[in-house]
């Protein structure tokens, strides 16, 4: 893998040796370096709720996890009719939409559901020091290898409305997920994958016939490599709290980020939580929560594939 030429000395005491960068941690840093510090370095308990009304937020998160569980089990081959029995609203409508509008090009495809892939990046240090290995991971709702040689990354979105595709394309999820898949592919049974074979697709329960589709390619892959390397290098350059400043204070920043951040009171960026109706998707809330706690799926380990490279 190409090494980033401008990274600082990468041996950082701030992060544990087994730390894995991800779309969530990189998004946290890109949005507000201080949020990365508080979440991943200090690992502070969350002092405030993420969004209001609190009950609606908690319900939305539970329903999102339940929907992912339903789809996972259906993709694993469990009888959809049995899964659909006595589902409460809105899960019944969401699952009906999945069954009716599951992308037709997934028919006959080899699918991997709820699988995690991780790769190692080498970040070059200054003064000709040995390159620093860092780990980058991604957890996928579904990866489909189609019969015509394409690889579709599916991500199920359960927000109240279809998210803005421009907003989605800018998120680190749309950068990290296809990048990790291409880089990990030579170690998988699929063999090497060209970036042009990959497609990132967001599917919305609120608009099941209008997925957001992002083709991939070699130019984008190179740009993603650089973007990821720049973010990791910037994080590794930090050695103290002051190296992770707050996002510039503005009305737009407070409205878009601070109102949904659990650390807003600690940073004197407001007290009241933002309203869920102002979010493009519940996934934005998930980006504010460290990995492993955003969505709880009660499956046995034999039902979840985790592949590390």
Task: Please explain how this structure is put together.
With 309 residues, this protein is α/β, with parallel strands linked by helices. The protein has a single domain (20-308), classed as Lambda Exonuclease, Chain A, CATH 3.90.320.10. It is built from ten helices and nine strands. The strands form two sheets. Strands 1, 3, 4, 5, 6, 7 and 9 form a seven-stranded mixed beta sheet that branches. Strands 2-8 form a two-stranded parallel ribbon. A hairpin with a 5-residue loop joins strand 4 and strand 5 (151-157). Helix 3 packs parallel to helix 5 (91-101). The two termini are 13 Å apart.
Please outline the major beta sheet: 7 strands, mixed
Number of strands: 9
Uncertain residue segments: 1-12, 48-54, 292-309
At CATH level 2, the architecture is Alpha-Beta Complex
- Computed CA radius of gyration, to the nearest angstrom: 20 Å
Which percent band covers the strand fraction? 15-25%
Mean pLDDT: 82
CATH first level: which class?
Alpha Beta
Give the structural class. Answer: alpha/beta
Number of helices: 10
Distance between the termini: 13 Å
Q: Give the H and E element order.
A: EHHEHHHEEEHHEEHHEHE
The name of the CATH topology is Lambda Exonuclease, Chain A
Shape: globular
What count of structural domains? 1
> Helical amount among residues, as a percent range?
25-40%
